[in-house]
Amino acid sequence: MFSWVRQEQGGRNKEGEMYQTVTEGLQSLYTKKLLPLEETYLFHDFHSPALEAADFQSKPMVLLVGQYSTGKTTFIRYLLEQDFPGMRIGPEPTTDGFIAVMYGENEGVVPGNALVVDPKKPFRKLNAFGNAFLNRFICSQMPNQVLQSISIIDTPGILSGEKQRISRGYDFAEVLRWFGERVDRIILLFDAHKLDISDEFSEAIKALKGQDDKIRVVLNKADQVDTQQLMRVYGALMWSLGKVINTPEVVRVYLGSFWAKPLQNTENRRLFEAESQDLFRDVQSLPRNAALRKLNDLIKRARLAKVHAYIISYLKKEMPSLFGREKKKEELIMRLPEIYTILQREHHISPGDFPSVTKMQDMLQHYDFSKFPSLKVKLIESVDKMLATKIAVLMTMIRDEESKQPPAMVSGGAFEGSQDGPFGQGYGEGISAGADAEDWIVNRDKHRYDEIFYTLMPVNGKITGVNAKKEMMNSRLPNTVLGKIWKLADCDRDGMLDDEEFALAQHLIKIKLEGYELPTELPDHLVPPSHRKNPTADESC
């Protein structure tokens, strides 16, 4: 049982607060400390709806965004390794709405209007987007092992042009912003033949601003171009993204072909396999980091709520008591950038914590500033105390929970089996080559290594470190790497190499030059045959 504040007698702290899990602690902190501040200063009208229990208790979610026919739905099918209810795939824009693919004992589809009244699902606040959206929002439920750990949100394919944006009947960018605030990972999918970022796609990416740490980019169907074209495609994609995602950091881009069909160009097969495994590891880690992500999002929300309270209370303070209210309101809206600067200096707030000036100016037009509440210092102090002390203790709770439980990982579907057996990444390659062979793999090139060995003037069948160094330096590998190779090859730890140890050293150099990593300990299949006879020497390898 955890307690994240100093406990008094009876196992409770002075405020009577005690929590079993981080999730319970986060929910209680939000309800008791942050929610009163949000409600007082109309935070939910300006920024984001109130959080509910389902928002804290839901599984990690992955949001897929991309233009039509970039393979979003196929990507989900690839991860799950089975069709899901409501799935439609084709070269034309087939997915015309949002589909939440979630775990359920019984396979079926729940329509949007029924979904937003279910208190167990984290979608109740989507009710604000109206029937035009809810008629194009469904939940696809199925018993799938992958979905026991994560939920996946499929989105409509994005087209270019003004016509489609108007015909949706709901604010597509705002819906994406709502999901972006709540999901754990945002994957932007691009097709190797569709690198242009349309107006609506650009608007959609900008709606995800502030969630940069969640964004990953997938360049799908990369097997449809050869290596030279792939380099050009990758460069063009990074250039296009640079104009839309205005961050100094480079976005992580995964290359691959995410469907269960033969590769059209196999020359980059090894690259695609490595990239897909990197992406899988990233997605698999989501359940393990879910509590930390929710904690991070709560901190971001608290900082924004504090800034919003300062803005609203400042506008209230500047309003005249009787005459000239409308004129003063227009003046304050025009002066909003200046007000931001004043509040930054007065309350020592970072400029990055302030909401968009343009958006605030548009929304403030519809409010009577004289009805805004004045600054309530106690509410601000309560949130400050939460950020300063209680969040830190929740961090400790997260570490405690991680140490007492096995790490939660996504399993099943495409995440299962690829790491085991002969088709696992790196199987039979690099340091693993020869693991299932009867003979010592180094013997295949030993005759060449022996020719070099006998030119180094061995004494009693061994060469000194000085002579070995001259030859090993010809590889141009750094001394730190060569030092590691020497330790691995010198099995009997006598500071000299016999012909088999020297051959092993040359083999390890070859492995490193081919781009593979060296092990920390020499695998059994690489131990020289003459050194396997002596158990003590074998252990030293």
Low-confidence stretches: 1-14, 535-540
Tell me how many strands there are: 10
CATH topology of the largest domain: Rossmann fold
Number of helical runs? 22
Radius of gyration: 30 Å
Q: Which structural category do the helix and sheet elements fall into?
A: alpha/beta
Q: Widest sheet: strand order?
A: 3-4-2-5-1-6-7-8
* Whole-number tally of structural domains: 3
Q: Based on Cα principal axes, name the global outline.
A: elongated
Helix content: 40-55%
Report the CATH C-level class of the largest domain: Alpha Beta
Break the fold down into its secondary structure elements and pairings.
Layout: H1 22-40, H2 43-46, H3 53-57, E1 61-66, H4 72-80, E2 98-103, E3 108-111, H5 112-115, H6 130-134, E4 137-142, E5 151-154, H7 162-167, H8 172-182, E6 185-191, H9 199-207, E7 215-220, H10 227-244, E8 253-255, H11 269-284, H12 286-318, H13 325-334, H14 336-347, H15 357-364, H16 377-404, H17 446-455, E9 462-464, H18 465-472, H19 479-489, E10 496-498, H20 499-513, H21 529-532, H22 535-540
Parallel strand pairs: 1-5, 1-6, 2-4, 6-7, 7-8
Antiparallel strand pairs: 2-5, 3-4, 9-10
Helix pairs in contact: 1-12, 1-16, 8-9, 12-16, 17-20, 19-20
